[in-house]
Design goal:
The structure holds 2 protein chains of 2 kinds.
Chain A: E1 4-7, E2 10-14, E3 19-25, E4 32-38, E5 45-51, E6 56-59, E7 62-67, E8 72-77, E9 86-95, E10 101-105, E11 109-114
Chain B: E1 4-7, E2 10-13, E3 19-25, E4 31-37, E5 43-51, E6 54-57, E7 64-66, E8 76-78, E9 87-94, E10 104-105, E11 109-113
Parallel strand pairs in B: 2-11
Antiparallel strand pairs in B: 1-3, 3-8, 4-5, 4-9, 5-6, 7-8, 9-10, 9-11
Classes of the chains: A mainly beta, B mainly beta.
Chain lengths: ~120, ~110
């Protein structure tokens, strides 16, 4: 069925280290993979996304890689800072009848960056 | 622009009560959706709409109704509240009528059903 697995569920790193969060998806037709950051008590906010015609995308300290063959994608955060501490969600698009799509979210990764 | 707004921020209901969670956006977005967020479960789609007059079910639609009479508003109705509906509810919208455009989330409504 439609499924997005996200690992790890918690991740603790030292300030300045890198953090990697991985997701796998089940629908080979998925073509859109966003990542959202949610700080405590706040709304999710898009931080980066990638589409299936691209293998990698970078935005300053954040990068996302996509392996369509293996059906997995990853978020990489370099030079982590305490303000990167949050819950991160991956998602994958799933096609619906009638041509529309929906997003299926992973269960989230709680990232803690220790000063 | 206010973006996506939701009211109320907090609500406590008794089992069996009904209520409507309000969602509005001022970005002229076609696509709007409702998610619920439970601890350890991520965000699950309840209902969505690709434009005024069009709604459809998501992953967990039971116990909820929606309507989309205008582009701006997308209210979520709980017909007879149950403790299992205790959750944080987020409304989201995106510009091009599809979920695969950037989705902007509202601030959320924290609902407790006793």
């Amino acid at each position: 069925g439609e499924n997005v697995e996200q690992h790890p569920s918690t991740l603790s790193v030292q300030e300045g280290d890198s953090a990697v969060i991985k997701c796998t998806y089940s629908d080979s037709a998925s073509n859109y993979f966003p990542w959202y950051k949610q700080e405590l008590g706040k709304r999710p906010q898009l931080i980066i996304d990638i589409r299936s015609n691209v293998g990698e995308k970078k935005d300053q300290r954040i990068a996302v890689t996509l392996n369509k063959t293996a059906k997995h994608f990853s978020l990489h955060i370099t030079e982590t800072q305490p303000e990167d501490s949050a819950v991160y969600f991956c998602a994958a698009s799933i096609g619906l009848q009638g041509g529309s799509e929906k997003l299926v979210f992973g269960k989230g990764t709680k990232l803690t960056v220790n000063p | 622009n206010a973006g996506v707004t939701q009211t109320p921020k907090f609500q406590v209901l008794k089992t069996g009560q009904s209520m409507t969670l309000q969602c509005a956006q001022d970005m002229n977005h076609e696509y709007m959706s409702w998610y619920r967020q439970d601890p350890g479960m991520g965000l699950r789609l309840i209902h969505y709409s690709v434009g005024a007059g069009i709604t459809d079910q998501g992953e967990v639609p039971n116990g909820y109704n929606v309507s989309r009479s205008t582009t701006e508003d997308f209210p979520l109705r709980l017909l007879s509240a149950a403790p299992s509906q205790t959750s944080v509810y987020f409304c989201a919208s995106s510009g091009d009528g599809r979920s695969t455009d950037t989705q902007y989330f509202g601030p959320g409504t924290r609902l407790t059903v006793l």
